[in-house]
Amino acid sequence: MNLNTNINTNIDTQKLKNTLLNFLVPIIALVLMLVLVLTVLVPAISGIPRLQDQLGTKSRLETQLRDKLSALNKLVDFQTIVDADEEVVSRILASEAKVPELLTQVDLIARESGLNVDRLSYSLGEATEEEVALPYSVVNVSLGATGSYDQITGFLANLENAARLINVSTFRFATESGEESAGLFSITLVLQSPYLQVESNAVTDDPINVDVGDPDFEAFINKLNSLRFYDITADTQFVELEESTPEEIEESVEEEQPTDETPAQ
Amino acid sequence: MADINLIPQVEKQEQAKERAVKSSTIVSLLLFLIVAGASGYVFYTTTSLNKEIQDRDNNIASLRGDVEGMSTIEISARNLGQKSDTVASILKTRPNYSLLLTEFKKRIPSTILIDSFTLGRDNTVSVSGTGSDYISIARFLRDLPDPAFPGAGQGLESVFTEVSLNSVNLDAQDDNADFFIVITFDENLLMKAD
């Protein structure tokens, strides 16, 4: 019985060996396939999209840097224009409050418009909530003057055309009493002049959005150049300066509000 | 007459085994070739991508060096850009009240005298004045918001959107009527778009 079992086992092993030998090539091919799939195909299939993304990102950055370099080269070629444009823009939006120059400009505009300036004061006080939200700082100027309706209109138009930006925050005018003052109004204005200190840094990978050769930008600069520049120098006669608090400026307008207003029915 | 198969059973099995070995060898070799081809392709693709990325990195490093060498002009350009954007934004969004006064004056009848004009909050103006009679005040109230008012400035036809008469009193001494009105205006029409 034991002898029979041994014989059977020997026969089976031999059979298996023969079968393996017969299928040696397919078995090797399958093993190699498995190795290729595990070591090359699977990692590559998951890695190629990542590499393509990486290449896309780097290509975009390269294009962006090329564009930026081209823009910078153009700016170098037009350095004088850049400097001139920067000077124009800096005169329109001052870097500092420059209060004496501002008040002198307001005084000049008022007088040129025919107004008789009674009072001119400024404040650099703490910014209100509205002012904090602005991307720039402001100098508040309060102006009290006398003039006709047309002179007031002309004064506002001249302010709007003045190179250093001056915005009208609020204003009020009322008739002057007395026969000598017929047709004249007493006007109180609160003006705001913005200023902005800019300190940019060179950020290598970020693009530059200024193109001095762009027709729209040129048109914008031409428009700025068409504004009236008031050259305030040391020889210019300065107005007498008077600093007020922001509350005083607000009050100066409110004080003159009519008191006999009847609420809407 | 029936066919007589004289091939022994053992020989038949041997032939079947040979066919099985042959076909499995061909199939496995074919599959191997396909997998090997695909592996070669993806290997080539990966290598190419890596090489391209390396080239891009070299270019980027070189470009960054060039850009950094021009930092002075870049700072000037950024300053110019930031300031010009701010100026453009201010000019575009500030109301030009000279237009408001010009348009207002056009619509004042000769029988109306303005005593006071106050710019209020929320795009309103409070105006007090005197009219020679109630009719002149009524005409004034009609003309102010009238988009078809003859002689209205271009683009300012509808600048006054609403007028409310808050009070009107007849002065018995001089027969004039004193009034107080609140005018609402469209601020957007006072902004210069260009």
Description:
The complex is a heterodimer of chains A (265) and B (194). Chain A is α+β, with helices and mostly antiparallel strands and 265 residues long. Chain A has helices at 2-22, 24-77, 79-92, 99-112, 129-133, 149-160, 215-225, 246-254; strands at residues 116-123, 137-147, 167-175, 185-195. Chain A folds into two domains: 1-77; 90-197 and 209-254, Alpha-Beta Plaits (2-Layer Sandwich). Chain A contains eight helices and four strands. Chain A has a four-stranded antiparallel sheet, sandwiched between helices. Residues 258-265 of chain A have low confidence and may be disordered. Chain B has 194 residues and is an alpha+beta fold. Chain B contains four helices and four strands; from the N terminus they run αααββαββ. In chain B, strands 1-2-4-3 form a four-stranded antiparallel sheet. The mean pLDDT of chain B is 90. At the A-B interface, helix 2, helix 3, helix 6, strand 3 and helix 7 of A face helix 1, helix 2, helix 3, strand 1 and strand 3 of B. Chain A: Residues 242-265 are annotated as: Disordered.
Question: Structural class given helices, strands, pairing of chain B?
Answer: alpha+beta
Give the assembly state of these chains.
heterodimer
The CATH topology of the largest domain in chain A, please? Alpha-Beta Plaits
Low-confidence stretches of chain B: none
Please name the fourth-level CATH homologous superfamily of the largest domain in chain B: General secretion pathway protein M, EpsM
The biggest beta sheet of chain B is recorded as:
4 strands, antiparallel
Task: Figure out the total of helices of chain B.
Answer: 4
Low-confidence stretches of chain A: 258-265
Reading off the top of the CATH hierarchy, the class of the largest domain in chain A is best stated as Alpha Beta
| Cross-sheet strand order for the largest sheet of chain B | 1-2-4-3
Task: Tell me what the CATH architecture of the largest domain in chain A is.
Answer: 2-Layer Sandwich
Mean pLDDT of chain B: 90
